[in-house]
Amino acid sequence: VQSPVDPRGVVDVYIDDAIATTVDLDNNVERVEGATLLVIEAIAQPKQNNEPLPREEMEARNKLEAETAAKEIKKILGWLFDFHRFLVSLPTNKFIALEW
What we know:
Helices cover 28% and strands 21% of the residues. The protein is an alpha+beta fold. The strands form 2 sheets. It has a 3-stranded antiparallel beta sheet, with no helix packed on it. Strands 1-2 form a two-stranded antiparallel sheet. It is flat and about 50 Å long.
């Protein structure tokens, strides 16, 4: 399987899980983590009295910030992703809950 590699890194977000991937060169890891935090800061600013569009406060801001760290193994939408070994697996507790 051919996979395009962007040496600058890429961040995707699914529901409430941020997935940052990059080649471990120079300061790329810090850059993708910082990019994710910048986006959270931009969309989760505290609500102002003169907002042009009505919106709710972002309740999950702290959770998102905690999950932005670049990791080799990360839980995304309930699945375990091992980016080092290119594995996707179902955690044991989820497997048992399925009652195969």
